[in-house]
Design a protein that fits this description.
Immunoglobulin-like, single chain, 7 strands, 27% helix, 158 residues, alpha+beta, seven-stranded antiparallel sheet
């Protein structure tokens, strides 16, 4: 019986090592901004819908279980979106999520004139979301930025 214990220990160690090795091949999902729609405008705050795309480059599906999204325009944080919804993203695919965003109108007002004059806006989307994985929950941070050019968008619209 004593000779069996070292074999079990080696087996358990090999099992843990193989589990850790599979964690190393996990690619964090990529988050991109798809759309922002405003629906409810008030004096101090506006609310709307933030649409994000979550791309899964892994060979296994992932289950996103909520997230926090911060929206910046021209370097200033103007809004936050929170979601407690679950979204399954299939393997080697992407899915979109719509989350309610709240925008600080005073922060936005300080930038709107520059945005109109320039005809473009630099945006940044940061935050984190939570994945339910076979080995427990995992928090994934993201930081994505880009530029939206209103003139170019108008030229592309038929």
């Amino acid at each position: 019986m004593l000779a069996l214990r070292p074999s079990l220990s080696c087996f358990a160690l090999a099992l843990v090592a193989s589990g850790c090795a599979s964690l190393g091949t996990f690619s964090p999902p990529e988050v991109t901004l798809v759309d922002v729609r405003f629906e409810d405008l008030t004096l101090f705050e506006s609310s709307g819908v933030l649409t994000v795309r979550i791309a899964n480059e892994n060979d296994d599906p992932i289950l996103v279980d909520g997230g926090v999204y911060n929206l910046y325009l021209d370097g200033m944080k103007v809004g936050k979106a929170l979601s407690n919804a679950q979204l399954e993203v299939p393997r080697l695919a992407s899915a979109t999520a719509e989350v309610e965003i709240h925008v600080n109108n005073l922060a936005l007002a300080t930038r709107i004139r520059q945005i109109i004059d320039r005809g473009a806006v630099d945006y940044r989307l940061t935050g984190k979301f939570f994945l339910d994985r076979s080995l427990g929950r995992r928090k994934i941070g993201f930081d994505r930025s880009g530029r939206y050019d209103f003139q170019r968008a108008a030229e592309l619209t038929p």
